Amino acid sequence: MVEVKVIGSWSSPFVRKVEMALKMKGVEYEYIEEDLRNKSALLLQHNPIHEKVPVLLHNGKPIAESMVILEYIDEVWEGPPILPQDPYDRAMARFWAKFIDDKCTFTMWKACWSTGEEREKLKEEATEGLKILENEIEGKKFFGGDKIGVVDHTANFIAYWFPITADFVGLELMTDDKFPNLCRWANDYINDNFVKENLPDKDGYIAILKTI
Amino acid sequence: MVEVKVIGSWSSPFVRKVEMALKMKGVEYEYIEEDLRNKSALLLQHNPIHEKVPVLLHNGKPIAESMVILEYIDEVWEGPPILPQDPYDRAMARFWAKFIDDKCTFTMWKACWSTGEEREKLKEEATEGLKILENEIEGKKFFGGDKIGVVDHTANFIAYWFPITADFVGLELMTDDKFPNLCRWANDYINDNFVKENLPDKDGYIAILKTI
């Protein structure tokens, strides 16, 4: 019996983050692709509250919410740490991961799929969040410092999925002239070998965008 | 020099949660009351992103976001654990703390201070969240099991501040007939001796509500 399973969706940045964490730790797992337009009994049983992916199943016990899953993976399995070791650095990582999840990702996604006044409002909101990140990444290679860390992976939507999506829908937001540090960071992040292997290919992702 | 300081507000459930965690660990700290209508340079310097309380200062280094602060306190100081020890139980505690913070507290607070259609919408949303908690607490004394834990403290707004606020503004929501388990839990929680000592007195809180 495979003791670790991930219920996921190919095109979810949150799922990719969990998969990268498992791979970093060298944990073997079974991946179960979920059809989010026709949710499975398995998903509804194991994440009845949010009905969202990712869900980690460890010996049959379910855990939902990607950051909660990452903390769990870090505590249960040996191997390279997911969160920083120093308590203050851990607190900072948790703070920034929460900021990205709460203030950036969803707003940026919604901005892509809205129009008119609503889009302008969301663009403004997203710009506020990105300005803060632009400031935070200034002078650093990655959010985690010299090496890619949990905050970088949490921001994988901003680095990879968002630019493709924005381009696809014709949204101008995270431009090189306005966010030079963030764009530099995004480029470094997606060109890291491990990250590259764990992000979906662009054409496949665009094919999915065409169905939205 | 006092090494630990809390920038707080007397009437913030998030601040009380942090203070309770410090007291559980036996950590001496200096409390600095913040005037949220006229924010201090100290607050703006140490939490420039959110400009909110609580902020924990440890040897001058600031940490914001109450759950991030709690994890930090638990990692840095000896004493009774704040989060459960078992990784799966910890994951569940993090999941529920996040659920309460994201889906209940703010919506319930906004429902108190809105009117008409907006209030009805918020009431509905809050009811959805409370139903899930009602189900979760069924058959358990506290969210933490037999003993009060981090999820109970995270829900301190629901147990104490909300009923007083709802009564003050004339909002009917968390009634005994609709949420018997939650109301029973709230009563047990606020009558715990340690909790009671760490919540503001009702008259003082109502005096503050009158100024809103």
UniProtKB/TrEMBL annotation, chains A, B:
It comes from the Eukaryota. Its EC number is 2.5.1.18. One of its GO terms (molecular function) is glutathione transferase activity. Residues 86-212 form the GST C-terminal domain. CDD domains: GST_C_Tau (cd03185), GST_N_Tau (cd03058). InterPro entries: Glutathione-S-Trfase_C-like (IPR010987), Glutathione-S-Trfase_C_sf (IPR036282), Glutathione_S-Trfase (IPR040079), Glutathione_S-Trfase_N (IPR004045), GST_C (IPR004046), GST_C_Tau (IPR045074), Omega/Tau-like (IPR045073), Thioredoxin-like_sf (IPR036249). It catalyses: RX + glutathione = an S-substituted glutathione + a halide anion + H(+). GO terms for biological process: glutathione metabolic process. SUPFAM superfamilies: GST C-terminal domain-like, Thioredoxin-like. GO terms for cellular component: cytoplasm. Residues 2-81 form the GST N-terminal domain. Keywords: Transferase. Belongs to the GST superfamily. HSP26 family. This is Probable glutathione S-transferase.
